[in-house]
Structures are given as C-alpha cells and as structure tokens.
Write a structure and sequence with these properties.
Layout (H helix, E strand, L loop, with lengths): L1 E5 L4 E5 L2 E6 L2 E10 L7 H15 L5 E8 L2 H5 L15 H8 L8 H19 L4 E9 L6 E4 L3 H7 L6 E3 L9 H7 L3 E9 L3 H17 L10 H7 L7 E9 L6 E3 L8 E2 L4 E5 L2 E4 L4 E4 L9 E8 L2 H12 L12 E3 L6 E5 L8 H6 L2 E5 L4 E6 L6 H4 L17
Parallel strand pairs: 4-5, 4-6, 6-9, 7-8, 8-10
Antiparallel strand pairs: 1-2, 3-5, 7-9, 10-16, 11-13, 12-15, 13-14, 15-16, 17-18, 18-20, 19-20
The structure holds zinc ion.
C-alpha cells in the first residue's frame, strides 16, 4: 500500500498498483487508465479511485473491463515527480527491447516502477480480448484549460475528436520515450489527458469527467447510466480544435531555466515578447504564436512549446492520403532511403528532397525526428495501427474527423 496525498483535496488515499478493477458482465472494450505516472500529479489517482468506487456503488452496468493503474508509486508517496528518471521518458526502443527479453536490471526506483508496469501491460494484452484503450491522466505546472495530447494516428484522431476539449497532435515528435508512444507503436488507441494545474481542485473534477466520457465513448458504459451531460459540459471548451506542436524549447543539462511568471497555457504571444530566461539571458518569442505548457516547476526539461491550429481541410486531406496509402510512393523518391537499422523507417535528405516539407510528411502520417542538419528520420504512424480491432466500434464509423457535435 502506498499513501498518496492530494493538496487540492487535502486528503490522503492508500492505493496499490491497481487502484481499481471492474469486470463487466458483458463483453466490451478493455479500458486501461493510468494516474500518477508523475508522482507530483496525484489528481488522476484520486479521480480514478472516485470513478471506480462510484461505478461499483451505483451498480452501473459495465461492458468489458476497466482497469485503473497507479504510475510512479514511489514518487507519489513522496509527492515528487520522479526519483532519477522521468517515468514518462523511459519507454525508448532500447529499454522496451531489454524489458521484453528480460535482460533489464533496474538501477533506481523509477526503473523498478517501469519494470512492474511493463509486466502488467504485457499481461493485460495477453489475457484481455480488447479492443484496448490506454488513457494517461496528467496535470500541468501552469494553469490551463483541459486538453488531450495525442500521437497523430487516424485511430487516435477519430477517438479523441469526441471530447469537448482541444486535441494537441504530435507531441511524440519532441519527446523521447513517453509511455503512450510505446503503446501507440503497438497500434492501440492511446493518448494523454491534461486536466489542469497540479494542485487545483478542478483538475480532479476534470479527470473524473474525462474518465466517465471515455467510458461512454468506448461503449464500456452507457451515457444514460451516468450524468453524461454534466460531465460533457463541465469539461468545458466546446469549440475545441486540433492543434499541432511545431516548436519545443529544450532545456540543456546545466541550464538554469526560468519561465517569466504569469503565462497560462494556450496564451497568445507576440514577436520579441520575453518568455523566459536561460542563465539570466532573455529568451524571446521568434514570432507571433500560441504558448503551450510553459514550465513552472523545478523538474522537467521541456521549457515550453509553441502550437498552431490545424485547419479542418488539412485533417481531411491527411485522412484521405493516409487511407489511400499515398506514402508507399515515398521511398522511390529522390533523397529518400530506407533506414537499414529500423524496419518501416525512412531517412530523408532534406537537401535533395526539398519538396518533402515536414508539414507534408505529417499529412502522410509520418512522425519526423531530426537526425542531423540535413536529414530527417521518419516513421509512418499508421503502419502498426490495429484498425481491424476497432472497425465495429461506433466511433470508428464516423467518416470525417471533425470536432464534437454540440449536444
Ligand atoms: Zn505528467
């Protein structure tokens, strides 16, 4: 048992790795929720505990199974983000390979947590039938409206457009080793939800609303069995849209990074505006933009991001191109070659393949990572998508990616 404290609620909660688990009486989806992957974010743990208790108390009929897992228990007990390594940055190819062949030897508390969580995910994938949904509950250091962070696959886009909150695509291009990128590469629906500031009461309520809505959207419970309208409306921003990240300020190892006070998430910034300081030197905005996830805590190495809205036209175009598998022609183009070390991955020489702008590669479904000044390494996110697992689901039948219908 680990004792977790919520400053927002001024409450303690004793939890184990399984915060709760409900097995439905009828077949249905397998819903896997994570709370507290970051130890300073107890909101998700409290919310998941509340929802599962309520579902049991009110005897809400469940289809499939609902599994709520606590993330970094060691860190949660200490209200610390992590011990030595961020548990949301350790799911790299090398690490997962070592976990798979059992050659991995944990050397700190975070790695012990990871090994255990890996074992549980593996076991669930072997024993449950699915379709699987992995949802990761987080909070941010700055004030924010709730939003979803989504690896840009068509499956994820389709499912996530059901929520009345903005969807931020493409964070995986900037981060190495988040838990959900690993699960996405297995082809399942999986994304993150940031409910608000770490210690705000609203963050817990938003996590609760998100959890209920997710259960309804996947068909695990019916909208009629809960106070659906309340949760839908309370999540807020009905005009939610798709955004993409196009810039990340990475904090260097020995850098003393200090965000200027007062920035809130999704705030508009203007050219030359002072955003932060690096060892006392000013960091200014390169142009007009929207700031995303400004860092207001000591731990972490993403200073801030910048985002822009993705027009609906681009979303449709890219759905079409991806369905037509337009990308298959790509490897025959000049300046593009296969990466011999990683199947399904291409290396693009941007000097030769100038026409392949990052934006265009996004439309085709590629995740881009900069290899060096002239080369991009790209991998198609649709390659492993398990579309066949989801084809019979209600939400999958939606033809176009649009944002939530007003109810
Ligand atoms: Zn987090």
């Amino acid at each position: 048992m680990s004792k977790v404290y919520s400053e927002a609620l001024d409450q303690h909660l004793e939890v184990e790795r399984h915060i709760g688990r409900i097995k439905g009486s009828e077949p249905g989806p397998c819903m896997i929720f994570f709370g507290g992957i970051h130890g300073n974010e107890p909101s998700g743990v409290f919310a998941l505990n509340r929802v599962l208790e309520e579902l049991k108390e009110q005897k809400v009929p469940v289809k499939g199974s609902i599994i709520a897992l606590a993330g970094n228990l060691w860190a949660l007990e200490r209200s610390k983000r992590f011990d030595k390594e961020d548990l949301n940055r350790v799911w790299t190819h090398e690490r997962v390979a070592a976990l798979k062949d059992e050659s991995f030897v944990p050397s700190n508390e975070d790695e012990k947590e990871q090994e255990e969580i890996f074992g549980i995910i593996k076991n669930l994938l072997e024993t449950e039938t699915g379709p699987f949904y992995f949802l990761d509950l987080h909070t941010t250091s700055s004030e924010t409206i709730p939003f979803l962070t989504v690896n840009d696959s068509l499956l994820n886009r389709k499912f996530s457009q059901q929520y009345p909150a903005p969807v931020i695509l493409g964070i995986e291009e900037y981060l190495d080793g988040p838990l959900l990128s690993y699960i996405n590469e297995l082809g399942y629906v999986s994304f993150g939800f940031e409910s608000g500031q770490h210690d705000a009461i609203a963050s817990v309520d938003n996590h609760v609303a998100f959890t209920y809505l997710s259960l309804v959207f996947s068909g695990a419970i019916s909208a009629e069995s809960i106070n659906y309208d309340h949760y839908f409306e309370s999540l807020g921003d009905l005009s939610g849209d798709f955004y993409e990240i196009y810039y990340r300020y990475a904090i260097e190892k020995d850098e003393r990074f200090l965000m200027e006070p007062g920035f809130i998430n999704f705030q508009k910034i203007i050219k030359n505006q002072l955003l932060a300081k690096n060892n006392g030197k000013p960091i200014k905005a390169a142009g007009n933009s929207t700031i995303f996830m400004p860092l207001y805590q000591a731990q972490g190495n993403d200073g801030f991001f910048q985002i822009r809205r993705v027009p609906a036209f681009f979303l449709r175009l890219s759905s079409l191109f991806r369905k037509l598998r337009f990308d298959r022609m790509l490897r025959f183009m000049p300046g593009v070659r296969r990466d011999p070390s990683m199947p399904g991955t291409l290396i693009v020489n941007q000097k030769i393949a100038r026409f392949l702008a990052k934006q265009f590669l996004h439309i085709l479904g590629y995740r881009n990572q900069t290899l060096d000044k002239t080369h991009l390494i790209i991998k198609n996110r649709e390659m492993n998508a398990r579309n066949e697992d989801y084809v019979h689901e209600e939400w999958y039948k939606e033809r176009y990616i649009t944002k939530p219908k007003q109810h």
